[in-house]
Specification:
The chain is an alpha/beta fold. The protein contains five helices and ten strands; from the N terminus they run E-E-E-E-E-E-H-E-H-E-H-E-H-E-H. It has helices at residues 77-86, 104-115, 133-145, 164-177, 188-200, and strands at residues 4-14, 19-27, 30-35, 41-46, 51-52, 56-61, 89-97, 121-127, 150-154, 180-184. Helix 3 (133-145) packs parallel to helix 4. The model has no long low-confidence stretch (mean pLDDT 95).
Length: 214
C-alpha cells in the first residue's frame, strides 16, 4: 500500500519563509510530509523545474455582486473562479451586500446560492448598511456563529454610508460575537464638497477623481 495518496516530487517548495527543493506527501487531503526522497504515492506528480506553493487567497473580490443602481459585476462565480484558479488562487472572499430596509440574512442566502457555481473555495464579507435592531441582535450574531466573521462598513457612498452611531452599533456587535470589521474610511462631507467644486470648474476628466478624495 502506498504511503501517500499523492506525492509531488522534485519541485522547489515555497513556504512563508523559505524556498527548498523537496517532495510533498499528501494523505487524506492534507500535507502529511515534506522532505527528500519520500516513499511512493498512489499518484505521483513530477514537479521538477517548477515552483510548488500554497494556493492564493484573494481577500477582496467583486464577483456577481448586485450593485445599488441595479447592475451586477461582469464576472460570475463560474467565470471568476475559473480565472482565479488559472492564476493560482484557490480561495476568494467577495462581498455580500445588504439592501437598505432588508436583512443581511436575506442578502447572504441569495448571494451564497450564486456562489455554489464556484470551482474553488470561497467565503464572504458581510456588507452592513442598515443596522436595524433585528440585524444587530439576531441576524449578524447568527451569521457570525455560522462562520461569517468578516463585516464591511462604509463611511461614504449614499447607498452604503452609515453615521457614527450606526458604525458603533456594528463595532459593538462584532466585538461581542468575535467578528472582524473592515472600514471603508473616507470623509463623506469633504468628498461631496470637493466634488461640487470640481464640477463647477468643469474638471470632470478621470484624473480629477483622485482630487475629490482628500
Amino acid at each position: 500500500m502506498a504511503a501517500y495518496d499523492t506525492v509531488i516530487r522534485g519541485g522547489t517548495v515555497v513556504t512563508a519563509s523559505d524556498m527548498v527543493r523537496a517532495d510533498i506527501g499528501i494523505a487524506g487531503g492534507r500535507v502529511a510530509a515534506l522532505g527528500e526522497n519520500l516513499d511512493e504515492g498512489a499518484h505521483e506528480i513530477d514537479a521538477g523545474g517548477r515552483l510548488v506553493m500554497p494556493g492564493g487567497v484573494d481577500s477582496h473580490c467583486h464577483i456577481e455582486q448586485p450593485g445599488s443602481t441595479g447592475g451586477t459585476n461582469a464576472d460570475t462565480f463560474t467565470s471568476g473562479s475559473i480565472s482565479a484558479a488559472c492564476g493560482g488562487t484557490t480561495t476568494t472572499i467577495s462581498f455580500s451586500p445588504q439592501v437598505r430596509g432588508r436583512g443581511v440574512r436575506e442578502a447572504m442566502d441569495g448571494y451564497a446560492a450564486l456562489a455554489r457555481k464556484s470551482v474553488i473555495d470561497y467565503c464572504f464579507h458581510i456588507i452592513v448598511n442598515d443596522p436595524s435592531d433585528a440585524v444587530i441582535e439576531e441576524e449578524l450574531p447568527e451569521l457570525i456563529a455560522e462562520g461569517h466573521r468578516s463585516i464591511k462598513v462604509f463611511m461614504t457612498y449614499p447607498s452604503n454610508r452609515m453615521d457614527d452611531a450606526q458604525l458603533l452599533k456594528v463595532f459593538a456587535c462584532a466585538k461581542k460575537h468575535g467578528a472582524f470589521v473592515c472600514v471603508h474610511a473616507e470623509n463623506h462631507d469633504a468628498i461631496m464638497w470637493m466634488t461640487d467644486r470640481l464640477l463647477e470648474a468643469g474638471l470632470t476628466s478621470p484624473r480629477y477623481h483622485a482630487w475629490s478624495k482628500p
